[in-house]
Write a structure and sequence with these properties.
Signal recognition particle alu RNA binding heterodimer, srp9/1, 2 domains, 4-stranded mixed beta sheet, 8 strands
Length: 138
């Protein structure tokens, strides 16, 4: 996959949020696109798979404005570290309620946690390191 497109109301706010929560940063190769206000703002961790953020006034929290959900995969350490940081991340679910470690979903082959970005895009962090997560979550 090259990129996933999301609608956001403000590039700068969205870029800051995605960096703080998921560690993705602006892709300098495509900097010209968003500096000329044409877009998109490309974010990436590895310069391979990217998020393409498009500004759109009609991105409204709680309404589906982009793909149904985007799932990001991580290993056991990344997943558990994310769970440990939930309180400081102040993430919310689709209803606007706080996301807590109690919201981790056991899919019996993987673990996931679901949350939204500030524009209401529904996101998931998942890991397939099932046995190790199960052991460490105890």
């Amino acid at each position: 996959m090259d990129h996933v497109e999301l609608y956001v109301t403000d590039w700068d706010d969205a870029a800051s949020w995605y960096e703080r929560v998921l560690g993705v940063t602006p892709e300098t190769t495509f900097e010209e696109w968003w500096q000329t206000e044409v877009g998109p703002l490309m974010l990436s961790v590895d310069e391979t798979t990217k998020l393409a953020l498009f500004e759109r006034e009609s991105a409204v929290r709680g309404q589906e404005v982009s793909p149904h959900r985007i799932a990001f995969q991580t290993d056991v350490d990344g997943f558990l570290s994310f769970i440990d940081r939930l309180e400081t991340l102040e993430l919310t679910d689709r209803d606007g309620d706080p996301v807590t470690p109690d919201d981790v979903v056991d899919h019996e082959l993987s673990y996931s946690i679901y949350f939204t970005d500030p524009d209401g895009n529904w996101l998931e962090l998942t890991t397939n390191d099932y046995d190790e997560v199960a052991t460490r979550l105890g």
